[in-house]
Amino acid sequence: MAKVLIIAGDYVEDYELMVPFQALQMVGHDVSVVCPDKQSGEHVMTAIHDFEGEQTYSEKPGHRFTLNASFDAIEVEDFDALLLPGGRAPEYLRLNPKVLEQIRHFFVTGKPVAAICHGAQLLTAAGVLEGKKVSAYPACAPEVTQSGGEYVDLEVTDAVTDGMLVTAPAWPAHPAWLAQFNALLSQ
């Protein structure tokens, strides 16, 4: 059983937080979800992004997700892996130096990391993508490339693993993305 840290924030993509949170627990992992400046028992608002034929995704109100750990109380060294959901949260979470420091810890120590959709914005801001094959929401492709990563254009249902990093374009990739991440957690 692995101890998995999920860093979330307000307007995180609902499915990209809730589905991994539940699925990873279902297969036996211990999952802690934190948000900067929030405590265990407080909540983050989620947003539901959908692909309905327009030029970009639509956004609808999601749910209140209750955090089960406090950002300031965790020790990142206690975790075996990191998961970064997408949505709008990465846009502002990447401005937090402690979040970026925590992300770098997982890369420096060679621990598994999974990021989906706009979660790649956190990876680019942390400066950890040099030479890595990375998928993300297509609008993040320029950031991935500019940060030294190789953007991999996948079907929305696919994921890619490069070493200890698993990435995917969006929540329709959950089966592939979570299976690849779980395989890393089981090593």
Query: What is the CATH domain class?
Result: Alpha Beta
Kindly report the average pLDDT value.
Answer: 97
What characterizes the major β-sheet? 6 strands, mixed
CATH fold-level name: Rossmann fold
In what order do the strands lie side by side in the largest sheet? 3-1-6-7-11-10
**Superfamily (CATH H level) name:** Class I glutamine amidotransferase (GATase) domain
Going by helix content, strand content and strand pairing, the class is alpha/beta
Describe the structure.
- The protein is an alpha/beta fold.
- The protein has one domain: Rossmann fold (3-Layer(aba) Sandwich).
- A hairpin with a 2-residue loop joins strand 10 and strand 11.
- Helix 3 packs across helix 4.
- The chain is globular, with a radius of gyration of 15 Å.
Task: List the topology elements.
Elements: E1 3-7, E2 12-13, H1 14-26, E3 30-34, E4 43-50, E5 58-66, E6 81-84, H2 89-93, H3 97-108, E7 113-116, H4 120-126, E8 133-134, H5 141-146, E9 150-151, E10 160-162, E11 165-168, H6 174-185
Parallel strand pairs: 1-3, 1-6, 2-4, 6-7, 7-11, 8-9
Antiparallel strand pairs: 4-5, 10-11
Helix pairs in contact: 3-4
Give a short synopsis of this structure.
This protein is α/β, with parallel strands linked by helices and 187 residues long. It has helices at residues 14-26, 89-93, 97-108, 120-126, 141-146, 174-185, and strands at residues 3-7, 12-13, 30-34, 43-50, 58-66, 81-84, 113-116, 133-134, 150-151, 160-162, 165-168.
